[in-house]
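Comment thread on ticket #2218

A.B. wrote:
> Attaching the input chain for the structure job we discussed in standup.
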Amino acid sequence: MRLIRSTVARAALLGVSFALVTPSVTLVQPAIARSAPDSFADLAAKLLPAVVNVSSTQTITAKNNPNVGPEMPAFPPGSPFEQFFKDFLNRNRPGGGGDNQPAPRRAQSLGSGFIVDPAGYVVTNNHVIEGADEVSVTLQDGTTLKAAIVGRDESGDLALLKVKSDKPLPTVEFGDSSQSRVGDWVLAIGNPFGLGGTVTAGIVSARGRDIHQGQYDDFIQTDAAINRGNSGGPLFNMDGQVIGINTAIFSPSGGSIGIGFSIPANMAKNIVAQLKQYGHPRRGWLGVKIQQVTPEIAESLGLKDSNGAMVAGVTDGGPAEKAKIRGGDIILKFDGHDVKEMHNLPRIVADAEVGKEVPVVLWRDGKEITVETTLAERPADEQLASADAGKPADTTKPTDIAALGLKVAPISQELKDKFQLQDNQKGVVIVDVSPNTAAADRGLKPGDVIVEVQQTQVTAPKDIQNQIEAARKADRKNVLMLIQREGGVQYVPLALTKAPAPKDKQPG
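C.D. wrote:
> Ran it. Output below, let me know if you need it in another format.
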């Protein structure tokens, strides 16, 4: 099964697998469904004039497509056939010149779009016009207009175009996609396979789909037929409002099998407004690096469940740092929205207004606290910071932390040289990992640095031992460690082995 962006000339593929689960359902009473419309004709006639075909043209040269034209066979150096084939291929290559330089060629991509403003603003997918030298829009009456790109959003796969017309253009409006329910009727209108205005009908099959296209995935799934060329076209509700922008399909062959995906209107209309005003999206930015809260992490911190997003790092000078959010905090709520899991947070933050002061509910030191932060605009070249560095401790012999299956030592110049640590690295370095232990299972290895244990900084092996004892007294089964390695920082929960019984109580 493949994920295909539904554009005629370009398609992105993604391997996926499915498992069919059939739950047991007990019906309390029969559900009453509304009957299907007798016809969609009146609605289609009203909407078709505002849906357009989008054509983009791109010049492809040997530099960005080295496979243009046939390749010359390999011959021994000095072979008389070498120059013969070189001349032959150059003469017969379209627009061929000399010295094996193929002439540029034009590639065309077809998609769909819809008009949202009588002044000529057209919404489509970014992948429909990506890399284009020229973009044109064809109206239902056959009129073709040259389009300018007002703004693009690569992360959200949206683009806003502008065409000039002698008269006001027909438009459609965005609806409230949050009101669309699974089972509601929908219409898709677009330009499948370059055929022109085509109408298909179906229902909303699912909501909130994550198809791994990006960190803001929240797609509407529909079984209305969507094919290559439908990309950028609208998905309508029965009131004639745009509730989605058709973007991708799952397909084994490139054709529709009734699994299509649309960007929700509530997400799209905010980005479209920003593209119109600024030329680029302005997403909220908190400035944190996050990781999933696992059941082991939750248990080690005294959380009842594994909801939330764990802060693994804070960007220097970012909104989170200014709000005193720190590594090890669990973000439970953001601006009144529950953070059910890590993947929810980027979407919630991105949708928040830049410059807005928002409350953030954290789990810290075994209790909930609330901090206020003012969101910034997400930088284009965002880089999340690692933990702050500090001074190393003095050199001592390695210490055996039997409860974790580790041997550790304070950072010395010798260990810095051996493991290529930074001069200002702080923490306690792992020098040995026992096989068949929780540490080994979690992938810890010599050279990894333990920066924190149970959200408390450590600078010596005794600090680790103290935190282990405190965790045991609190009846914890796991301890949470912040590990720094070449790839960055990460919180790792480790199961504690049972403490040895006193010598006078050893089993016989």
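A.B. wrote:
> Thanks. Noting for the ticket: The chain has ten helices and 28 strands.
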